[in-house]
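User: I've been trying to design a sequence by hand for this structure and keep getting stuck. Would you show me what you'd pick, starting by listing the structure so we're on the same page?

Assistant: Good idea, let's start from the same input. This is the structure you sent:
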């Protein structure tokens, strides 16, 4: 089976993991955790980075640090992976869902602005939904598939309406807007190292921020909130959300490989665009000249989505439909959904992601392209 987006273990992973096993430093502390955090902060251009057990737990901790709770709303795009909305629900808050821009497949900022101007109000320097008076402390943009929206506009809207920005940049390691790395725009950003992401630690995540107090607090909350180095004194309800050293060892090795992976992703998307653009009604996600995306997961749009999915998967070329839009999942059907012609559904019905592991060969890219072209013959 040709994997959709599988791990590429081709550097110092064995060496660093063996070092953990040989020395016994496998668990919740160790030098690889520190090193992985340092490398991540440097790469993202932030002052601090705190490793977590997953991207989902990173998002949860960020929301907790903003005191997001029951009776609050968090604004987020309607097309995202479920982890975004799950992390919001863990706090008791509810997502307000924004429909999708048909070209970039990111949150539609026109709809966002419309919503903020017409349906919210500012009281005591905070944003409230007019119709029920509940607070909207946070907006959580998602850099869907590693692409990014107009971040200047998003940040300006957030500032104007007193929203804290927490970036779900879990898909966007190596993506830039006007030369600035994803995750470094908001008060906090997050990364994921799940097996299908651009680099992997098996499972893991990261919080990045320029705010020292928040970084310290994130470390505290992810390590059971122990407040004394000797006695088991804990000063609040904490979480066991840390990344283990043996996973961080993999992370350090993968970070060393990241520039090469980013280069390969660019070659993969260029290959597919070259081979498939103009074939039938196939089109690609549109990227603004301000954005330098990581091309994490090449995805095509066509009215014959199901046929393409079938032919690829039948030939052991793993491909997947886009995520079911959040408003169509039973947990969120009752949530406020700010939409225009439900473009999320249109995109969902037509998009599919195609094999793009960084160790895919040009011959395999050609074989996938040929199979897709067969549908349109
Ligand atoms: C991968 C991902 C996450 C986090 O996933 P984990 O598996 O918990 O690391 C969160 N949001 C989005 C949009 C993702 O793609």
């Amino acid at each position: 089976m040709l994997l959709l987006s599988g791990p590429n273990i081709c550097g110092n992973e064995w060496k660093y993991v063996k070092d953990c096993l040989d020395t016994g430093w496998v668990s919740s502390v160790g030098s690889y955790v520190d090193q992985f955090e340092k490398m991540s902060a440097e790469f993202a251009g932030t002052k601090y980075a705190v490793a977590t057990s997953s991207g989902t737990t990173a998002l949860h901790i960020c929301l907790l640090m903003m005191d997001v709770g029951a009776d609050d709303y968090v604004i987020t795009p309607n097309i995202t992976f479920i982890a975004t909305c799950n992390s919001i629900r863990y706090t008791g808050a509810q997502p307000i869902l924004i429909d999708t821009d048909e070209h970039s497949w990111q949150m539609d900022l026109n709809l966002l602005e419309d919503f903020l101007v017409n349906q919210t109000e500012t009281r005591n320097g905070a944003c409230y939904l007019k119709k029920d008076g509940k607070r909207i402390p946070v907006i959580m943009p998602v850099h869907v598939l590693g692409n990014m929206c107009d971040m200047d506009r998003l940040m300006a809207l957030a500032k104007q309406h007193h929203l804290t920005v927490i970036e779900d940049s879990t898909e966007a390691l190596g993506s830039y807007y006007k030369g600035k790395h994803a995750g470094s725009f908001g008060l906090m950003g997050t990364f994921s190292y799940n097996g299908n992401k651009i680099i992997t630690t098996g499972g893991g995540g990261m919080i990045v921020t320029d705010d020292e107090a928040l970084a310290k607090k994130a470390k505290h909350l992810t390590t059971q909130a122990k407040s004394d180095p000797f006695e088991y004194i804990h000063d609040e309800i904490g979480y066991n959300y840390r990344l283990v050293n043996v996973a961080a060892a993999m992370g350090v090795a993968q970070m060393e490989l990241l520039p090469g992976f980013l280069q390969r992703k660019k070659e993969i998307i260029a290959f597919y665009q070259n081979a498939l653009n103009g074939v039938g009604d196939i089109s690609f996600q549109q990227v603004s000249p301000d954005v330098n995306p990581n091309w994490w997961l090449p995805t095509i749009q066509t009215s014959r989505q199901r046929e393409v999915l079938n032919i690829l998967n039948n030939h052991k070329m793993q491909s997947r439909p886009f995520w079911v839009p959040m408003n169509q999942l039973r947990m969120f059907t009752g949530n406020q959904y700010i939409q225009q012609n439900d473009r999320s559904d249109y995109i969902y019905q037509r998009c599919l992601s195609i094999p793009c592991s960084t160790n895919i060969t040009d011959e395999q890219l050609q074989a996938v392209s040929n199979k897709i072209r067969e549908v349109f013959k």
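That's my pick for every position. To get oriented when you compare it with your attempt: The chain has two domains: 13-255, 258-326+339-375. The mean pLDDT is 98.
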